[in-house]
Amino acid sequence: MWKPYRRAIEILQAVTLTGLPFLVIKGQSALRFDIPTLKLYVFGSVIWIREFYLILGVVLFFLLFIAFVTVIFGRIWCGWLCPQTVLLDLSKSIVKLFGRKNQKTIQSLLFILLSALVSITMIWYFVPPAETLKTLFVSSTITSFFLVLWIAIYLELSFLGRKFCTSICPYAMLQNALFDKDTLVIEYDVSRDDTCMKCDECVRVCPVGIDIKNGLSSACIACAECIDACRVLSEQRGMPPFPNYKGLIVRPKTFWLGGAIAAAGVALFLLLWSRPPVDFLVTRDNAPLLSGLNRYSYTIYNNGGNSLILKLSSPENVALIGEHSLLLRPFSALHGRILVKSSGKLERVHFRISGGGISISRVIGFL
Predict the structure, then answer these.
(1) Which domain holds residue 137?
(2) 301-346, pLDDT tens digit by residue?
(3) pTM of the model
(4) Strand pairing of 358-365 and 348-355?
(5) Torsion angle defined by CA atoms of residues 125, 131, 137 and 141, in that order, rounded to the nearest 10 degrees
(6) Any domain includes 194
(7) Distance in angstroms (rounded) separating the CA atoms of residues 129 and 198
(8) Do 158 and 10 share a domain, yes or no?
(9) What is 303-324 written as a DSSP string?
């Protein structure tokens, strides 16, 4: 029976997505995009908005991965992992615990609670949970987002439900272009149609309301409910279920597509891993100053979770006028200006920051 496996995966996904914002690594959420500072916290590291190419790389990798899974496993995402499927399946299982009476009323109340939980969980990926709960009905911005998301999710679950999967979802439409003859699908065994009891249990349990006996349908989400329903009766007659998964998972396309995804994943990992713990940027200001005196602006980015005390220095024949000792807090950026005065003719000036095992030099023109 496929249902126990699906329920286990759905519960695991629900717990993971709801609990991930509470996971703290080096003082910050494990995964959160901070809107005021435009930086993405990723499991103990940080990606700044100026490093958007890294975010773009992560997005492209996941798009390739989704395409690979779709080509090989079909709509396994829709029936097993899609958050909407998880919410609808889990709510249906909970409602059954209350018996057959007033199921619609109970489900509507449950949708209200689940929608609120999903709404606040989505906010947690932008605002830390403790801060969200503290300012939920104090900050007008957070309150507005919470209420709008709550209403939108409730309306979608209550009035669209599975219709969203079959008519609106863009991923469902994309799959039609990615399928091939070997993609994993649920197919009715027409060669045994004469022995089918035509009980229509497969139709009754289908969440999208299709009849698998009529052949493949683009609306099928591969949830295996029809297989489980048929197996209950067919096993009593010593026969396998009439609908079943059909496809070829291990094939040449699996290896070359999988290899391409693996290579992209390794390249992305190396790109993230090779980032320096501290970035140091220096630019010369064009403001007019006295002869032999220039002003420079600097920005230092701390990509790690440790505080650093850094020293800004230059060669002996160059005098730095301004703050030399710098405190760089975890996952923060430090902006400043410093005046540079040369005791002799100089074309370029060398800046160096050092401390905490960090030593970075930058060379900038001097006029």
Answers:
(1) 3-184
(2) 888 878 888 887 776 677 778 787 888 888 888 888 888 877 666 6
(3) 0.82
(4) antiparallel
(5) -50
(6) no
(7) 52
(8) yes
(9) -SSS-EEEEEE--TTEEEES--
